[in-house]
Structures are given as structure tokens and as C-alpha cells.
């Protein structure tokens, strides 16, 4: 008499497990890349976004062709809502890959995770070592 209920419970638990696993697999993957890989992605039309502060942009310049979307304010406090709005404006109506970078890779990694959580992009890349690595390899910036 209890056998049909046990079978039904096992069925629903299995179904729940399968559905929860597939839901997680739909999240975009974040890939760390090198400066050389960034250049290749730029040639393929990727959108490159500098998530640093205006003061940092003025100090070092930005990677040529980059868009600006500040992830932390001048006091180093996250400005996530504004960042998400900026990303939506920059990437609207496109499915191009997005490359994020900051000074050394930490902030852009956090920003990439935020994009991943909100499923705003299908392909998200983070520049390892940030603009410091870009410059260390002899690459140019623009003001």
C-alpha cells in the first residue's frame, strides 16, 4: 500500500534534482584571458569594458576601443545598479562577447560574476592581471 507513494516521492525528488542541475548549467561561464587573447577577441568584435574609476581612466588611459562602466565609486564602494544599467546600455541588442578589465583583475572578476548572476551576457571574459598586465606587455592605451 505504501509502495506507490514511495515510488512517487522518489520520482519527484529525481525530477527536482534534474531540473535544478539544468537550471545552473544555463548560467554563462566566465573565462579568464590574457592580453593576447583580448586582442583576438577585439578583432572578432567583442565589447571591451573598463570597470575602473574615472581617476584611473585619466591616469593610465584605457585599452583602445574600450567602453567605460564604473563598478566601484571613488570611495571603492560597489555601484552595482548603475553598473548593470551601463552594461545594458553598452551591450543592448547584441550577443557579442564581453571582456571586462580593471587595474589588476579583481574588480572585473567581481563585475563578471554580477553579470553572470543576472544572465546579462552569454560569453563573459575577464582580463587576467587587468590593465597592469596589458601595459607590462607593452600594449598601448588611449586617453
Backbone structural class: alpha/beta
Silhouette: globular
What average pLDDT do the residues reach?
87
> Roughly what percent helix?
40-55%
**In whole angstroms, how far apart are the ends?**
76 Å
Largest sheet: 5 strands, parallel
Radius of gyration: 20 Å
Question: Quick one: how many beta strands?
Answer: 5
How do the strands line up in the largest sheet? 1-5-4-2-3
Instruction: Write the element-wise H/E pattern from the N-terminal end onward.
Output: HEHEHEHEHEH
Number of contiguous helices: 6
Structural commentary:
The chain is an alpha/beta fold. Helix content is 49%, strand content 14%. It is built from six helices and five strands, in the order H-E-H-E-H-E-H-E-H-E-H. A five-stranded parallel beta sheet has the order 1-5-4-2-3. The radius of gyration is 20 Å and the shape is globular.
Would you summarize the structure shown here?
The protein is α/β, with parallel strands linked by helices and 143 residues long.
Write the layout of secondary structure elements.
Layout: H1 3-25, E1 29-33, H2 35-43, E2 47-50, H3 54-60, E3 67-68, H4 80-91, E4 98-101, H5 106-117, E5 123-127, H6 130-136
Parallel strand pairs: 1-5, 2-3, 2-4, 4-5
